[in-house]
Amino acid sequence: MSFLVGEDLTGGYGGPDILQGCAIAAERREITVVVGPNGAGKSTAMRALFGMLKLRSGKVRLDGEDITALAPQARARKGMGFVPQTDNVFRSMTVQENLEMGAFVRDDDISDTLEEVYGLFPALKDKRRQPAGELSGGQRQQVAIGRALMNRPRVLMLDEPSAGVSPIVSHELFERILDIARGGVAILIVEQNARQALELADKGYVLVQGRNRFTGTGAALLGNPEVRKSFLGG
Amino acid sequence: MEDVVNAVVLVTNFLVVPATAYGCQLALGALGVTLVYGVLRFSNFAQGETMSFGAMVTILFTWLLQSWGVGLGPLPTALLALPVGMGVTAGLCLLTDRWVFRFYRRTKAQPVIFLVVSVGLMFVMNGFIRFVIGPADRVFTDGTRFLLTVREFKAFTGLSEGLAIKTTQTLSLVVAVVLVVLLFWFLEKTRTGKSMRAYSDNEDLALLSGVSPEKVVAVTWLIVGALAAVAGTLYGLDKSYKPFTFLSLLLPIFAAAIVGGLGNPLGAIVGGFVVAFSEVFLTYPYRKFLAYLGPEGWRPDGLVQFLSTDYKFAISFFILVVVLLVKPTGVFSGKSS
Amino acid sequence: MSDGVEPLSVRLGRTLRRPGKTALFAAMAALICIVGLAQSWSLALAILNLCLISAIMTLGVNIQWGYAGLFNAGVMGFAALGGLAGVLVAMPPVTAAWRAGGAGVLSALVLASLATVAAVVVYRRIRHPAYRRTAVALVVVAGYFAARALFEPAVRAIEAVDPSVTGYLGGFGLPIVLSWFVGGALAAGAAWAAGKISLGLRADYLAIATLGISEIIVAFLKYEEWLARGVKNVFGLPRPVPYEVDLQNAAWFQEWAASLGVSQVDLSSIVVKLCYAGLFALVLVVLMWLSEAALRAPWGRMMRAIRDNETAAEAMGKDVTARHLQVFVLGSAVIGIAGAMLATLDGQFTPTTYHPLRFTFLIWVMVIVGGSGNNWGAVLGGFVVWYFWVEAEPMGLWLMDFITSPLSADSPVRSHLMESAAHMRLVVMGLLLLLVLRFAPGGLIPEERR
Asked: Which of C198, C204, C424 is nearest residue B111 as measured by Cβ atoms?
C-alpha cells in the first residue's frame, strides 16, 4: 500500500464532475508527477487529495488511515503540506514570518527546522527580514516551499512549481525538491512543464479529462511514443 | 522676532494641539475600520455607533463611580471607567458577530450584503443608544481641565499669545500611543497577532497553514470593540458626547482608513492624522496669524479661511475623492479588490 | 397538474404561504381604510400620499440595488436635491437680490468653470508627472480663491436683501410640476459625479462616496443661504393643486359640501389631498411602467446578468462600469423626482429635515422588506413600511404605557421609557431589516426568476 493514496476520485466544484474516477498514489522518498493537457483535472486532483473540494465518491488514505472526511487544516496537522500555484506566500509578511506561519500548528521548538529550510534555500536567509511580496518569482517559490516544509510534512504536494520562473531557476528548484524527497518525504507534483518534471519523476501519471490515461515510471512515460506525441510535443 | 514666535504659538495653540488630539481619536477609529476590513473584508458602517456605544458605557460607569465618590484626582474619572467600556463593547462586538455577521460569513455572502447588514446594525445601535442615554449633549469630563493654561504660559514666556493644553488632549495622545504600541506589538510579535496578519494577507494560505478563521475573527472583534470604546470616549471627553455626532464621524473615519489603504493598520494611523490636520488647518481663519507675520499694523481684510467650518467634513470627502482618483489602494497600498 | 384537479386545500395552502401581490396590495389598501375609518380620512390620505412618494423613492433605490446590486448610502442627498429643485423652479425670482449679487454669483460660477477647464488643459498638456501635479494644484487653488473673491461679496449682498423674507436669489417662478423633472436631473448629475469617482472600484467605495456626497449636499443646502435660504427655510412653495381656502370660497364647492352633508373644511382638505394623490399616483404608474418595461427589455436582462456574475459579463465584453454608472444615475434621478414631489407636498423646503435615518435608512428598509429586485415588491415595501413608521409612534407610546403601567406615574424609569419610546421605532426598523435579510431575503414579493 502506498503512503498517500487517492482512489476512484470523483467530483468537481458543484458543476459537472471534473474528476471522473482517477487514482493517484505517492510513496515516501519518491517523486510522483501528474501531467496532462489543460483542463485535465490535474490541479483539481491535488486539491481533492488535500480536502479542498467535496468528493462525490472515492477515498483518500494517508499511511493506511482513511482521511477522506478530514478538513484541509486537519490534513495539515497529519503531516500533509501543500504549495498552491499562485498566491502561495503572505506578501506583506517577512520571509521569516512566512516560514513561522508554516509551523503554525506546531507547538515545539521550530528553530532547527528553520535552519534546515535556510540550509536548503540559503538565499532566503539573507532576505529573511524582507517582505515576501518584494522577492523575485523564484525566491517567492522557495519561500512557498519552505513554508510548507516548516510543518515537517510527510507528504509535500506542489502545484506547478515551475510556472512563471525561468528554466534555470526551475531546474534549481527541482534539484531542491529532489533533496527534500531524499529526506524521506513523499512528493507529488502537478506540472504543465511535463518533460522536465518527468525526467526526475520516480512515477508519473498522465490524466486526460479526469481519468488516468497512462501510468509508469518517469523514464517509461518519456519513452512512450504515444505520450511523447500527444503530451510532450513530439 | 517676537511676532514670529507669537505666530508659531498661535498656530500651535489653535491648530497643532487640537489636531493632534483629534488625529489620535480618528486614528483609533480608523484602526477599527481597517482591521475589520482586513480580516472580514467589508467596510463596517457600524463603526461610528460602536464608538458611541463604548463611550456611552464608559459614561454610565463614570456616573456610577462619581456617585460612589470615586475619582482619579486631576485625571477624568472616565479613565477609570474606560476598561469597563472597552470590555463591554468588545463583548457587544462578539455578540453582533455571532448573531449577525457569522451567518453571512458561513454562507459566503457578497461583501455588499455585509455592508447593508452593517448599516442595519448601525441603526439598531443608534436607536438603542438614544433609548438608553437619550439624544442630549453630555459633558462627562472632570478633574483638572487644563494641563497648561493660557495664563500660565503667558506669565512664563511673556508672549502676548497664549498656549493651552487640555488634560483631555494630552490623555488622547498618551492613551492612543500606548494602545497603538500595544496593538503593533501584538500584531508583530505574538502568534495570534501574526495569524491575524496572515489571515488578512492571504485567507486561503492561512487556512492551509492551520489558522482557525473563527478565532482570528473573534480576536479581531475584541480588539476593534476595545479600540472603538477608547476612540469614542476620548472624542467625547475632548469635545462632548452626543449620539448624533458619531453618524457624521463615519466619513472622516472612512476617509482616514482609505487614505492609509484599507486593511493597513499603519496606514489608518497616518490617515487619521492626515484627515485631522487637513480638517483643522483648512478651516482655520489665518487672519491673526498673517497679521503677526506681515508688516507692523497690517491686517488682512477677510478671515483668510480656506473653507468655512460648516464644511469641515467636506474636507474628508475631498481627501477621499483625491485618493480614489489618484491611488485607490491608498497611500500605504491596502487592498483594492 | 392542472388547476382543476388540484385539491382546494393545496391551493389554499400555497396562497397562504406566499400571498399574491394583488392580495398584498389589497391588504395594504384595507390598512389605509382602517385609518380612514378609525382616525380620519384626511389622515388616511396624508399617509397614502407619503406612501406614494416613498414608493417612488423605493423604486429608485430598487433600480440601483435590485437591478444592479449597487449600494447607495446617500439617498438623503439625492432626495434633498429634488427639494432644492422645488425652490429653484417654482419660487418667484427675487429681483432685488439678482440686482444686488446675481452678476457676482454668476461670474464666480463662470470663473470656477474656467478654472476647471484650465486645470484639465494643464493636466493634458504637461507630461512630466511631478510638474503636472503642482501645476494642476496651482491652477485649482488660484481658481478657487479668485472665484471666492467674486463670490463672497455677491453672497453678502444677496443675503442682505430683506433677510427675514428673502435674502436669496429665488427661483424662476415656473409651475412646480416642472421641478419634478429638474429634481430628477439635479440628482442624476450628482449621481454621475459620485459614480464616476467610485464605480469600478470596490462596492464599499460607492457606499462611502454616496454617504459623503449626500452629507455634503445637505450641508451645502443648510449653509448656502443665497441659494435656498438655508436653515431659514423656504415656505409657501406654489402648489400644483387648488388651495383649501379657495375651494371653501367657491360657490359650487359650498353647495357640494352642503349636499354631501360634510363640513367645508373637511371636504376641502380631502379634495386637495385627493388631487395630490392623483398626481403622485400618475407619476408612480408611469415610472412603474417604465421600470417594468426596462426590466423586461434586453437591457434589464443584461443588468441582471451583470449583477449575478460580473466576471462572466465582463468576459462577454460588457462594459460593467459604464452600465453601473447608467443604472446608478437612473435610480438617483427617480429618487430626485420623489424628493421634488415631497417638497411639493410639504409646500416648503427645510434642509434640516433631511436626516439619514428618515431618508436613507428608512428607504432601504422599504426596499429590503418589499422585495429587492422586484418593482412591485419595492412599491409595496414603500407603502407598508411608511404606514407602520407613521402608525408605530402611537402604537409604541401605547405599548410603553402598557408595559410601564405597573410603575407609578412619577417613576423616573417610567418617564425615561416613555420619553425614549420614539427611539425604539428605529431599533424596530433596524431589526426588521436584519431579520428580513437573514430569514426572508426575498422580501414580501421576491424577485421573479425569469
From this structure: C204
Question: Measured between CA atoms, how close is B284 to chain A, in angstroms?
Answer: 39
Task: Give the distance from residue A150's alpha carbon to the nearest chain B alpha carbon, in angstroms.
Answer: 10
The grid cell for A160 is 506547478
Are chains C and A touching, using the cut-off of 8 Å on CB pairs and a minimum of 3 such pairs?
A: no
Distance of CA A230 to the CA centre of its chain: 24
Cβ contacts (< 8 Å) between B313 and chain C: which residues? 212, 215-216, 219
B131: CB partners within 8 A, 6+ apart = C420, C423, C424, C427
Q: Which residues pair with C66 in a beta bridge?
A: none
Q: In CATH, what number does B2-326 get?
A: 1.10.3470
Nearest CA among B328, B126, B331, B267 for reference residue C206: B328
Decide: residue C47, CB within 10 A, 0-12 exposed, 13-18 middle, 19+ buried.
Answer: buried
Give me the tens of pLDDT residue by residue for chain C, a chain 450 residues long.
344 455 555 555 555 556 688 888 999 999 999 988 888 888 999 999 999 999 999 999 999 998 888 999 999 999 999 999 999 999 999 989 989 888 999 999 999 999 999 999 998 888 888 888 888 889 998 999 899 889 988 988 998 888 888 889 988 999 999 999 999 999 999 999 989 888 877 778 888 889 889 989 999 999 998 888 888 999 989 999 989 888 888 889 999 999 988 888 889 999 999 999 999 999 999 999 999 998 888 888 888 888 888 888 887 878 888 989 999 999 999 999 999 999 999 999 999 999 888 889 999 999 999 988 889 999 999 999 999 888 877 777 777 778 777 777 777 777 777 777 777 788 888 899 999 999 988 888 888 765
Structural domains for chain A: 1-79+153-234 (3.40.50.300), 87-152 (no CATH)
Give the three cell numbers for residue A170.
526551475
- Please report the ipTM that was assigned to this predicted complex: 0.88
d(CA B173, CA B186): 20
DSSP C163: T
The Cα-based distances of A132 to A90, A174, B189, B194, B304 in angstroms read: 7, 21, 17, 14, 49
Burial (Cβ within 10 Å: 0-12, 13-18, ≥19) of residue C196: middle
